[in-house]
Each structure stands twice: as structure tokens, then as C-alpha cells.
Specification:
Blueprint: H1 2-13, H2 30-41, E1 46-49, E2 54-57, E3 61-62, E4 69-72, E5 83-86, E6 90-91, E7 94-95, E8 100-101, E9 111-113, E10 116-118, E11 133-136, E12 143-145, E13 148-150, E14 156-161, E15 171-173, E16 176-177, E17 190-194, E18 200-202, E19 205-207, E20 212-216, E21 223-225, E22 228-230, E23 236-242, E24 256-258, E25 261-263, E26 277-278, E27 286-292, H3 294-298, E28 307-308, E29 311-313, E30 316-327, E31 330-331, E32 334-336, E33 339-346, E34 364-369, E35 373-374, E36 377-378, E37 383-385, E38 403-404, E39 430-431, H4 436-476, H5 497-508, H6 528-543, H7 589-596, H8 599-632, H9 637-642, E40 646-650, H10 652-655, E41 664-670, H11 676-688, E42 693-699, E43 706-711, E44 714-722, H12 745-763, H13 767-783, H14 796-809, H15 815-828, H16 856-859, H17 881-903, H18 917-920, E45 923-931, H19 934-955, E46 961-966, E47 971-977, H20 980-987, H21 993-997, H22 1000-1003, E48 1010-1023, E49 1034-1037, H23 1039-1050, E50 1060-1068, E51 1125-1129
Parallel strand pairs: 1-4, 2-5, 3-8, 4-9, 5-10, 8-11, 9-12, 10-13, 11-14, 12-15, 13-16, 14-17, 15-18, 16-19, 17-20, 18-21, 19-22, 20-23, 21-24, 22-25, 23-27, 24-29, 25-30, 27-30, 28-31, 29-32, 30-33, 30-34, 31-35, 32-36, 34-37, 41-44
Antiparallel strand pairs: 6-7, 26-38, 33-39, 40-41, 42-43, 43-44, 45-48, 45-50, 46-48, 47-48, 49-51
Helix pairs in contact: 4-12, 7-8, 8-11, 12-14, 13-14, 13-15, 14-15, 15-17, 19-23
Amino acid sequence: MHRNFFHKMSATNLPRATSNCEPADPDNTLDDRLNTLLNSSGAGYVLSLCPSTQYLIQTPILFAAPNQEISTLGYPTDDTRAVLVVNGPVSNGTGHTTAINGQCANCTGVRLRNVQINGTRGGAPPINGGANIEMGGANSNQLVEYVHSFDPRGWSCLHIAEGSLNCNNATVQNNDIGPAGSDLFQQWADGISMACQNSLVRNNMINNPTDGGIVLFGAPGTRVENNTIWVETNTLLGGINMVDVSPWSGDYKGVVVTNNTIAGGFASSPDDGSATKGTNNEDVVIKIGIAIGPRTWFGPEYANNVSTGGTVLNNQLSGAFSYGIAMSSATNFTVENNFLVGNTSFIGARGPNCSTGDPTPSPAAFVLDINNTAQCTTQSDFQDNTNGDGLTCVLPPPGGDYWPFGGNPNSSSPPVGPAEPSPSSSPSSSHTSAGTIVGIVVGVIAGLLFVALLAWYIRKWALKRSADRSHFNAARSVPKGFVRIVSTQVYRKPESLVQVSSSVHAVMTTEKGYLGVTPPISTADSTEREKEVTSTLMEELRRQNTFESVDESRLSGLAENLDCAITKDYWIEHDTHFMASRGSFFWSSSLFSASFGEAGDAEVAFSIFRRESVLGRVAAVVKKFVYEVSLSRGLSEVAANAAGGKIFTFGSYRLGVHSPGSDIDTLCVVPKHVSREDFFETFEKMLAAVEGATEVSGVPEAYVPIVKAKISGIPLDFLMARLALSSIPDDLSLQDDNLLRNLDERCVRSLGGSRVNDEILRLVPNVEVYRDSLRCIKLWAQRRAIYSNVNGFFGGVAWAILVARICQLYPNATAGAIVSRFFIIMYQWSWPQPVLLKQIEEGPLQVRVWNPKLYPADRSHRMPIITPAYPAMCSTHNVTASTQMIVTEEFKKGADIVDKVIVGTASWSELFQKHDFFHKYRYYLQVIASTASADTQIKWAGTVESRIRQLVMKLEYVDSLILAHPFIKGFDQISHCITEEEVRQVAQGQISDVVAKRTKADIEGVDGASTVFSTTFYIGLLIEPKPLNAVGPRKLDISYPTTEFSKLVKMWEKYDEDSMGLVVRNIKSSALPDYVFDEGERQPKQVLKRPKTGKGSGKSSNTSPDMPNKKRRSDMTQDGENTIPGLSFSSVPLPGDINGVYAPINRAVNDIKTPQLPPGENAAVATGAQ
């Protein structure tokens, strides 16, 4: 009967649009059709439902692959959204309850958007089963938005489950939820139930839930903001609940509940203007506006369990409650600045379910149980009570004039007036605002002021954006004397880049007189001595081969200004699809020699053109890739050709500071119908087929997914961004922030590289000085082995931003002076004070912007260096305690050397001396990744390297270990083995001299012979000194970190136990292999003692995963010397005291005086601290 009724309503009352959407008829195959589409279409598939159509489903619709989407065609937000009706059978209290399920094993990134879910409980008792919508599980980055979910048969409208505590980063936004359940005893239902960590719940409207409006089941790191919860026809137990112990054991650390509006019941009787309260026909109240702690809800049921670590700020309450905010059995919570607005009352009395032995506090705005709430920061108007157990047992009064007059959020007016927050009024049971008429007047005035202020701000923002765009265009224009000719020949006059820089400087300093977030430290010109050392610095950089030739320094801007690069005007041989649009590109060495004056300059130009020729070939491959994917998606030949595709460069090449052999960071921009899976499956194969392409390897699991390759000997790193455009025009610019609309976070991060580079060049006062300074710092960081984002140090973007900041602080300084100040200011920097090139912009889009006040993860960044392009991100989120210590030491050592250079007692070459990593520690960890295939090894080693930082972070928690120092690269070995024992030894990192000298020809035709490809990574271990008077060796138990690391790496979806090896073992410095040293660098090996039987250094890390305890030395294992579980070590006490964790790693650093700026210069200006 129900099916026929719904079918009739769908067919007769609702107009249906079936173009490009999946129809509801025939309804007897509906469930199978929808689920088959999701199962067979793979990752990225969008299941479009028809607007104004009801889908009567008998079973749940199941997401089946990553990044799939279920949505209504055209993305409407009103009642024309498609309606999925839960209509399956029910028997004996169980049956069909769930419409959509996104908890499959591989449902990361799935999206449910712009649909309606009707659970069809219809006043019946609840059914055992799931929520209307079940999402989460062992997945991340899921999205639910613009969904209307209501009347669930089960316990919730929307449930984001925790998985095995590995659900992460779900977003629930802009949904309208409810009504849900009945306020009859145990027939309740939640609005939103969130158990997924690091998630975001915002801008949702939740009407008439009955159990919890928003229920947080722990979900550490989650942010709940700008939601509105209100009731009209039923009683609600809790508005926002932070009471559940399971599944996160009461862990609410990092949870922030802020700026939410919770409106209880209002009077339903007419307001005659003579009273502030009236009656409510349904006796509607919210029993607890915000409930904190399990005892608040469950009484003593969970014994001594507590809720720990949340923050509740700036929430507003209005209407009728029993308790506004109630806290019991909570620790380390912060509850501040929550307030009452409009008319409120606090009403209720003990009900039959209240414990007879415990008193129940009188209704009030803010109540706190002082007996079991500890270490909390709370606002001053909380009332202390001695019992806060089971407060939901209270009942509203059966009638009477107790309900305040007011409005609900579903009306056109706000739920509460815009009057100022009113403080709670003592321990009384009610609170009332001044009066309705006064409130309206104040509200109108405040509203007008707000609109005027908003209009002024929008106008100012628009003017600033327009000015910024003009500045960018001016900065990118070719200076006078440069000529652009696309095709045939190129002539270029070698104007000095100083002219370019000065013109940019003039444009960029007109608005406020300086670049950056603070005024400069000094605007003085460099001294004659600083100019001299700048000259010697440039000579040293040439000797160090940082330019592609000795003359490239004065031509470093050449590549940037060539318009013939990366366009369809390249003639790409063997291309068949784009011959109609291709042009030709030739150049003449004699013409270049004549134009540039020296043959060496033509040599430089040849090098530049060689790189750009490769880029041109890549550009054509990208277009061909988009073309073929477009055809596979059903586009016509014409549409596929028009789909386009374009590449942009970024990184050192875009900044003009690339060196011989450096890679080219390349962004591939594709239209919306090309998926990331296409990029790693189709484009990667096409790239491998390019003539001269080698070492093509994709790492899709990386924080920024990447494909690495070499083409004609030039290394390239490819990122992909899929824009929400049907085609990519050849003249596309990435500067428009609106291009970021509807992109996932990986695409936003990928676009960031090119956008950030352009913004950096726009924000430095002198481009030539900046480039020279950056070349120096990059070379220094590489030589000192601290240039690696993946291993927890700084990457290229971070170093570029740091140098740009110093250039802003000294706009008229030479490169030598910039480098000198760089080390001093960076050593003195007050981390975690962020390094900014400009103020962070919130921007027009709903994308995450770095904000430590909002996001707990951002607060954890140790050395935040923030990208200047919108949306602002932290380029150094990978930094660990160990790598921060190492970088800080290097800043100090660099400052000391440069200070000596300035006074003439040292040379620049000393700054660029090679690191001493393999001489620095007595103990090291070897992480050895091995396979039998060269291609597989590239991917496997890349995966292992991307997880090394996680091992370092786990090692930092081990007792007696001061620091874990990862080396910035791995060492590749190819070993030709003829026995299985040799294969095993190589995989364990033990390569004999016989195997090392054997060639591929030596094993040809030998039965059982094989080749092993291995990559070895190293981590130096700094162990705290042995206490005085201590005797015998000590044990260092690092079995847990190494075992957990091994498990983490082997979770890679392409891991194959039979073909991929992973070994983690400890090794003494005396046993380091020769390949880690340069020729002549290694000191003579010491004579090693013969190891005891069975206790060699070759044991792997596959040991017991017992948790390490920071202070349980008696639990150290007793294995033999040099094995992972119970690593033996001996050390002599250092003179003096180890000054905490951040003691200098190298004792020689203690002898270096703290670097200081010249007199009259104050580093505090850089952070605005002065």
C-alpha cells in the first residue's frame, strides 16, 4: 500500500526531469539499478538523480568506490531535490532503516549532495538498524551537504561512524535535518551523530530532533560551528551532547563547539504585550542546551569515566531550557563566553526516572558538578552543585506561563534578536530581556549598521583585490627592450634584471609604503663591505655550479619571459590529434650569439630552450591525455578536442633559481570530467611512452599526489588539478580565486604551488636580490641536509618564503646582507609565531584556510611558514620536534660562519661545507626497502620514504632518546644474487663485497639467479648521556615504533608481501657502508669485536608491539647487542647539563655565541612583537 501511494504521488504530483539523470522507474528494479551503477562505474562516478522525483527504495544504496557522488541533477537546494524514500520491509522491530551507506572499505572522498532522505517512521516506534544516512567507517574526506534528512526509522538522521578509530576529516555542512523521532520515552532520535575525528560540522539547520541535536561521540579534533538547533513541537533531551564514552574513551581533545545557536521552546499563546512569558501547547523545552560529561547524561553508569579536552565557546541560547549548559565528570574543558540572548527561561522538575537518592539541581543557565569536574576553565556565571547526575530525567511543567515569547529559526526572522548577550541572572530559574519593542528597535538599528559596515568592507576588499591584480599584471609584464616573437625566431635584448626589479618595487610599495605584514627593520642601503661580500658570494655560487653556466646569473629571468613555452605552438613530433593547431619553433645559435654577445650566453639559452622543449612535449601529452579520457567519457570528437588541458610550472624553475640537474615542478590542469584515477592510470602510462622518458613513477597516496619522471634527462614532478570547468582554455590564468570552487583539498593543494610562486615574486621588493639570496640559502640547506619536506625539514616553498620575508624586512639590501640577516632572524624567530608574507585572507570560498585559533591541527605546527596565496596553508606541517631542533642548530651555525665572512675571517665556501650526518651519531637505524623490479622499486621506495616521518615522530616518544634525525634521501643499490641466501642478506642490508662487485653479465644463464633493487634510508639516533656512576650497558626499546612503522607502510594498497621487502635494523656508525661516504671522507674503520653467537646486528624490526613507556626502564628487553628490541648502547656523560630536549645536538654549537643583528636593528619588528 505504501509503495503504491508514494508511486502515485511521484507520478501525478511532481514534474520529473529525466535528462542526464537516472529515472525512478521501473521501480521494481530501482535498488539494483542504482547499486549496479555505483558498483560498475568505479572511482569518481557521479550518480545523478532526477529533480522533483521520489525514489522508493527497498534496500540501502551503497557507495562502492572512492570519490563517488550521489546528488540531484543541477544541485538544487529547495524541495525539488530528489527524495530517497526508505520503503523496505519491517518485521518485529527490525528491517530497512538506511537509505544511503558510505562505509565501504574504499569509500574515501565520497559525496552525498543535494538530495532528500525520508525515513518514513510516521510516528511509529523506532526500528533496530542504522540511521537514514550511514557514512564514515575506515575512510576520510567524505562530504554531506545540502541534504534534507528527516523522520528516520532508526536512531539518527545522519551518522558518521568512527570505523576502527580511523575515520578522518568528514565534512557535514549546509544540511537541513529533522524532525527526528518522538519525545515519548526511548523513542528518541538524533539529528547529526558524529564519531569521525578531525571533522567539520557547520551551517546546518536542525529542527525538532528528540535525543540529541548534534551528538559528538568523542570525534577528537572535530569542529562544530554556526549550526542552529531548535524545537517547536517536542521536547529535546540535549542540543549538543559531549557525553558519550564510547568509542573514543571520552576523548574530546581538539573538539571545538563554537558560534552555534540553540533555541528551546517559546510561548505558543498570543503575545498581548503585557507579559514576557506565556503557555506552550506542547510543553516544549530543551532539557540541556549543551551537555558535557557522561554523568550529566547517564548518571553513574560509566563509573569514573570522563569527557576530556573539549572547548565550548561563544554559543548562544534562547527560549526554554531546563539547563543551558551542564557539566559533570569532565576534565580539561574550556567553556567560556557562552551567553543568553532574547527571552529565556529555565524550567522543570524531577521526573519519575530521577534517582531517588540523589538531589537534582534546580534549573539554571549554567550548572557544574564540583565533585567530579577538574582542571577546567569556565565562565564566571556557572553555579556550583554537588550532584549533576542524569539531568535529562527532569520534566517540563504541564502547562503554565513559563515559556518566553520569541521566535524560531525557521521563520524569516532570526531565532533570537540581535540584542547584546545578556548575562545569566543569579541562581533564579528564569531570565528575560528588556522588552519586545525595545528589542525590535535595537535590532533594526544594529541590522542597519551591520549592513552598512558589510557594504563598506566588501567595497574595500574588492578595491584591494583589483589593486593586487593590477600589481601582479604590472610585475609580470616584460620590461622595456624585451621583444616577444612566437614561432620562427626569437630575438632578445639582454636588459639587466635590476630594471625589472625596480619597476616591480615601485608598483608594490604604493599602497602602504612597504611589503609584508610589518614595516621593514631597515630601509638603508647596504654598506660597501656588504656589497663586497655580495660580489664574493656570487663568485662562490658560480664555483659551486648553482647556475646552468657561469653567465646564467645575469640571465636568470630569461625563461620566465619567454611566451613561446608551454603552448600549443610547439611542434610535437608523432602527435596526431593536434596537428591542426600546432605551430613550429626554431632558434639559431648564431642569432643568439649576435643578440647576447657571447657564445656562452647562447649556450645558456640552449639549456633553457632544452628544458622548455621538454615542457612543450609534456604540454602536448597533457592535451592528448585529456582528449582520450574525454572520448572515453562519451564526449564527441569536437568536444574532446575542445576540452583542452594546460600545464603550469612552479618551484625553483618558476622562481628562476633552478640549477643544473634540478627538477621542474609541473602542474597539469584538466577539466572536471578527468579524474585523479585517470591521471595515475592513463597519464602515467602515456608519459612512460614518451620518447626519452625514464623512471616514471606515481605516488597517489602522497599528501600532494605526484608523478615523477625524467624526460631527455630532465627530472620532472607532475601534479594534477581538476577544475570545475568543462574545458581548459589555452589562456587560462590561475590567479582567479573562484577557480577553487568545488575542488577537493588535493586539487587546492596542487594549484597552490603555481599560485604561491606568482604571489612570492609579487611580494618581494627586488627580484634579482631575492633570486641571488635564495640560490645561496637553497644550496646551504641542501649541503647541510635539511632540504626535504617529506622527511620533516623545509621544502623549496618554505625556504622561498623565508628568504622573501627577509627581503621584505630589508628592501634595499644586497644579497650578502640578506643572507647575513637571514640566519640571525631565523635563529631568533619566536616559533610557533608564523612567518607571513602578507595578512591571511579569508577569501570568498568555503575552503580551509590556515587558522590555529580554529583548527587544532594548525595549532600543532611547530614552525609554521604560511603560503601567501589563497587559501593560506602551512608549508611546514611535517616538521617534528627532532627536525626543529636540527634546523635551529643549523641556523645558529650558519649565522656564525656568515658573521666571520662579513668581518673577513672566513670564506663563503665554509657555509657550503657538506653535512656531517654520518659522522655525527654513534647509532643509526637503517630502513631498507627492496623488490625484484626496477619499476616497482621506485614506487615502493617512494611509499616507504613518505612514511619515514611517522617513524621519527614515534621514536621521539621513546625514553632516553633525545632526537631522531632522518637523512634527506635514500641510497639505491642494485645487487645481482645467485643464491636465495644472498637475496635474503641483501634485503637485510648486508651486501658482501662479492655481491657488490658482481655485474648483470655475471649472472646471465645462472639458474636461480636474480637481481635485487634496494633503497636504504638512515635515521641518526641521539641518546641522552649515561648518568654519572652508572655501570654496564643500557637498553633502548624501540620495538614499538619500528613495528608500528612497518604496519603503517604495509597498509599501502599495492603492497605485496611476496615481492616487497621491508627491514628496519640498528647499526653502529663503525658499520656504516662505504657508499654513504664520499671518496676519501671515511676515517679508517675500527677493529670490531666479534659478536656473540646469535646476537648480530642483522635482526629486523618484526618484534613485539608492546607500547613504550617513557619512564619504564625496568621493562627494557634484554636482547643482544645492536638488535632493535633492547638496543644496547653506552655513552659517556657530557660536560655540563643537557638543557632539556632542545639542547644543541653538536657540543661545538655551545661555543658559538648567540647571533645578534647589527646595532639599531631589532628582530622583534619582523613579528610585530615590538
